[in-house]
Amino acid sequence: MSFLVKIIAAAIIAILLIVAAVLFTSKVWMRRQTSKYEAIANLVPPALYHPARIALERSHAIKLSESTKSLWRVYEKMGFMVLADYSEKNNAFANVRLAGHPTLKIGLILIEDNDGQSYSVVLAITTDNQVEARGNGPATDLYSGTIHWVMNKNYLPDQCFEEVRLAVEGKTLLNPDTRLLRAIWASIYASNADAEIASGLCTKEKTMQHVASLISKPDEQIIDEVLEASTTAWRRRMEEAVLDNWRHENRIDDAYWEIVKNRIHVVDNFLEPDMIKNMLSENENADILVDRLDKSGFSGIRLYEEAQRQLPNERRYQSIGEVQHPIYALIYAPVDEPGDRIGEHTDTESDHDIYQERTQSVGVFDTQHVEDIVVTISQLTAQSFAETSGKLLWKSAWIWLLPLSLLIYSFIGSGPTGWINWLIYIYALVAFIFLLFSVIPLFLFHQIMFARLYRQPRKGLLLLNILAKIKPLKIITPIQLLAEKCKFWASMDKTNEALNLWEQQKGTLNDETFYAELAQIHDEAGQFDEQLTALRQLHKVSAESNVSTIDLALALLHYKKTSNEAQMLIDRFQPLQLSGLTLAEYWLCHGLIATLHNRYTDSFEFYEKTIEETRPFVAQNPLALILIAQANGYAALSLLALGKREPAIKLMQSIRPILRLHPSTRIIVKRFANQLARSGPF
Fold it and tell me: I want to staple 265 with a disulfide (CB 3.0 to 4.6 A). Which of 151, 302, 332, 510 is the partner?
C-alpha cells in the first residue's frame, strides 16, 4: 500500500513540476515576444500611428501641462476667453482648448500633444467662408480657394494674432463659436492626414534609412519586421480616411453606418494576396483561389474582383461606391446589404416630419424597457466548458460518486488494506472508463451543437467522426449522427449530397423523424420553400402534433409574413397545453403576428416570454440561442418601427453576430437594414 501511495505522490509532484515549468516558460516567452513587438513598434515612423480622423470629447476638467498653461496665459492677456475644452479619443493628441476674442471675432485653437508640448492656431472666418489662419504647429500649410492656413514653428503668439487681424481687416467676420472651430480643425487635420497617406506605402529603402537613423547596423530581419508593421499601420490609417471620405461624399448617416461598418472591404491596388485571403477567409478554398489568380498575373483591385467573381453568389461582395482621395479605392459590401440605398440617407426635414408623424400614430415604447430584453452575445454564450462539463458530471454522479468515496476512504489511515484495496482500485478504474464512454459522447455532441450554432462545419464533421468511433452504450444513435452530418454538408454548399444521403434513409425511418430532419437540412441550406414543404409534410404525418403545428406556423410568419393561416394554427392551443421550446415558439408566433398588425408595443411582451421560456434550455442545447436571437432581432425591428433608433441599433448589434451566421435568421438582419435605410436619419 505504501509503495502505491509513493508512486501516486511522485506522479502528482511530477505533473505539478511540469505544469510549473510550462507556465514559467510561457511567461518568459510572452515577455520576450511583448518586448520584441514593442521594440519593433518604436521603430515605425510615429506619424503612421496617428489616426486619420480626430474625435473630440467634451471635457470639463482637463489637466493641462505646464507648457500649455504658460501658452494659454499669453493668449489670455490678449483678451481671449475659453469656449470649451476637449480631449482627443483617438490619441492623435491629448487636449484641445477652443477660445475666442469677444470683440474682434478672432478664434484660437490651442493643442497639447501627448508629450505635454503645445502649439496654437489663431484664425478668423469671413461671412463668405474665407479662413485666415496662422500658427506654430506641425501641420503643413494649406492654400485653397477658401482657406489660407499658414504654419511656422517660429511664429510667436502675438505674430499669429497680428497677421490674422491685418489679413481680415475691413471684412465682415463670423463669430468663431465652438461648432465652427471644431469643424475647421477636424477638416484641417483630415486634409493633412490625407496628404500624408497619399504619399503611399513605405518602401524598403526608406524603411532602411529610417531604421538606420535610430539604431546602428540593423539586420535584414528587423528591416522586414519594421516594414511589415509600417504597412499595417499605414493601411489602418488609409482605410479610416477612405471610409470617412466615402461616408461624407454619400451622406451616410451615423445610424446606418453602425450597421454596415464591420461588413465593408476597402479594395485598392496596394492590397497584397495575403490581405485578400484574410478578407475572404469565410470562404473555403479562398487561399487556393487567390494563389491561383496571383500566379495568373492578377494583383490589387483586379485580383480581388476576379476572386469575387469566382465565389458562390450568396458569399460575394458587391461594389457600392468608390473614393478618389487619399488614394483611389473601391468600397465593397455583402450582396445582402441594401447597397442600392447608399446615398438615400439624406438628412431632410420632410423625412424627419414624416417619420415623427408615423411614430406618434403607433405609440412610443419605453426605452428603459429595452434593458430587460437585451441579451448580448457574451450572455448568450455564457454556457462555458466548465458549466457544461459540471452538469454532465452531476447527472452521471451515480457512476463516479461511490467509487470516488471508496478511493478516498482507502487512502485515509483507517481505510481497509490488502486485497480489498485492489478491488476498490479495479472498481474505480471500471467506473472511470464507463464514465468516459458515457459523458464524453454527450459532451462531444454538445460541442457539435455549438459548431452548428457558429456555422463551423469542419469542426462539426471532425467531432462527428470521433463520435462515430465511440460506440459503447449507444447513447447517441447512428441516425442522429447521420442527420447532423447532412446538416453540416448543407451548410457547406453540399446540399445535393446531403439530400441524396438523407433520402436513402426514408425507408428505414418513421416519417415523422424523416421530415423533421429534412426540414432542418433545407434550413441549413437556405432553401426556405423546400423547408416549408417538408414542414407541411411533417404536420401531416405527425397527425398535426403540437410541435409540428407550431413549427409550421412560425415558418409561415418568418418566411412568408402571412398571419391568417398561422393564426388559425396556433389558435388550436392554449399555453398550458405546451411546454419547453414549443411554448417559446408559440409566444414568438404571437409576437410576429402583433408585429405584422403594427401592434409593436404589444409584441414586446411576447418576445420577452419567448426569451424567458428558452433560456433554461440553452445549457443542454446551444441551438436554443438562435431562438433567443430571433426574438431579440424582431424586438429590434419593432423598436425601429416605433422610432427608437438608438436602442434598436444597440439591440441589433448585440445579437447580429448570431443572426448573420444562418440563412434563416439573416433575413432579420436584411429587413432591419432595409427598414433603417427607408426610415432615413433622425
Answer: 332
Which alpha helices (DSSP H) does 456-510 contain, by range? 457-469, 478-491, 495-503
Tell me the C-alpha distance between 59 and 65, whole Å: 15
Beta bridge partners of 334: 317
Q: How confident is the model at residue 38 (pLDDT cuts 50, 70, 90)?
A: low
The 10s digit of each residue's pLDDT in 100-118 is 998 899 999 999 988 888 9
Q: Is the pLDDT of residue 338 over 70?
A: no
Write the CB contacts of 178 (distance below 8 Å, at least 6 apart in sequence). Answer: 83, 84, 98
Task: Work out the number of other CB atoms within 10 angstroms of the CB of residue 339.
Answer: 19
Give Cα 171 distance to the centre of its chain.
Answer: 51
Cell output for 76: 489670455
Question: 57, exposed or middle or buried, with CB in 10 Å at 0-12, 13-18, 19+?
Answer: exposed
CA distance 244 to 382: 36
Q: Which residues make Cβ contacts (< 8 Å) with residue 682, sequence separation at least 6?
A: 253, 255, 352, 355, 643, 645
Crossing angle of the two packed helices 2-43 and 220-249, in degrees rounded to 10: 70
Give the tens place of pLDDT for each residue, 435-446. 666 667 777 887
The 8-class DSSP code of residue 315 comes to: G
Three cell numbers, residue 553: 406556423
Strand runs (DSSP E) across 127-270, as ranges?
Answer: 131-135, 142-143, 147-151, 265-267
pTM value > 0.90: no
**With pLDDT > 90 as the criterion, what percentage of the chain qualifies?**
23
Please provide the size of the chain in residues: 682
Distances from the Cα of 253 to the Cα of 123, 244, 246, 259, angstroms: 30, 11, 12, 10
The answer for 177, left when phi > 0, alpha when psi is -120 to 50, beta otherwise, is beta
Per-residue pLDDT at 365: 33
Angstrom distances, CA of residue 444 to CA of 450, 481, 492? 10, 11, 21
Task: Check pLDDT > 60 for residue 592.
Answer: yes
Question: Sign (positive/negative) of CA torsion 469, 475, 477, 482?
Answer: negative
Question: Within 13 Å of residue 555, how many CA atoms lie on the same side as its CB?
Answer: 23
Among the listed ranges 91-105, 260-274, 325-339, 344-358, which one has the minimum average pLDDT value?
A: 344-358
Q: Other C-beta atoms within 10 Å of 30: how many?
A: 10
3 state SS of 82: strand
The beta-carbon contacts of 78-82 under 8 Å, at least 24 apart in sequence, are 78/157, 78/158, 78/161, 79/103, 79/104, 80/108
